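Quick note —
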Amino acid sequence: MPKLTFIGAGSTVFAKNILGDCLSSPALAGLSIALYDIDAVRLEDSRRMVETLNRNLTGGRSTVTAHWGVANRKEALRGADYIVNAIQVGGYEPSTVIDFEIPKKYGLRQTIADTLGIGGIFRSLRTIPVLMDIADDILEVCPDAWFLNYSNPMAMLTMALLRRGIKTVGLCHSVQVCADHLLASLEMPQDNLQWKIAGINHMAWLLEISRYGVDLYPEIKIRAAAKNAEALAGGSKHGDMVRFEMMRHFGYYITESSEHNAEYTPYWIKGKYPQLVDQFHIPLDEYPRRCREQITKWATMRDNILSDKALTHERTHEYGSSIIEAMETDVPYRIGGNVANHGLITNLPAEAVVEVACLVDRNGVQPTFVGALPAQLAALNVTNINPQIVTVEAALSHKREAIYHAAYLDPHTSAELSLDDIRALCDDLIEAHGPMLPKFS
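Predicted structure written out below.
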């Protein structure tokens, strides 16, 4: 049976989802699982949890090993066929706090800051060097392994790994839940759907959606406009307000949430128009709030997970286990994957990482050709792709000037700050992160 190495296994709840899915698959019975993390306590928590699931779901047929610290990372990877990556370099403290608090001093506010924006840029700068060290180990001890990347910033991390020659696909939750979420929010039936999604991670587009062959977009747009109009007139606010307004102006629904997309474009979080934040229900500082909530809940969750000897698992919608199944059994499976563009979307840059439908079987991850996006959608994507490309260049070249360039190109940052302020903000962030970042010349 194949070997799966989980990097960042101290993310116990996420590890339960991915590894519980694998252990629930009859086709993967006997899977060898290697857990790796730099946090010994969280690693041990996950090991105990996975051992319990292994006993309860497979009768102990899988093997589970735990590997702590950088010195043991290579052994965790040795001979791996599949690698799941779920690391967050710097964690909530100090790095996420830095990503939010220092920009605030310049009047720059964020919601999530894990994908783009000044927070996403610096999250990439501290994560890519760690991934490159992991990539060196992979090329030495398991060069043919498939790297399933769940960490953000998805596009930038995946781009860096692909440049290093690692067989990588980036995996996100937003594609598989997009159509159902949209129709549920508009109280429309969700059965017998057919849809097509393509673009970039967190800014992919629902290009087509039909039910029994009937195009749903006309009805979707009528209902979405009415729902937003009611909210703006004093009715109940809802979580899709930014997405519905973007659809009204650009014609298509976006896969990722309003709080994410509010910081990917220059239209929403604006010092000149502060009322937009309340009008469109944009939750500033949302990611730090979620982090604090999760930290508070973890103690209780930990006790529940680790003390439950009958712990079990129901398979989730995560792609990871189904990808491994498809490659091992040669039974095809379709995913929305983040892959190198190379002409898949013809009006986006070749070096971009795009999110498109992919067929998975024993041949690996095989992306499908999309062609040209509607011009306005491609143009919006490119405003995000440009800082992604330059950020990866900065991370790989260790050139400080490239960090400035990436920040200058970021849509939200450049809409709010002057070039000199952006440069000063980058300098402050570099200093505050200290040893969490490599030296930039």
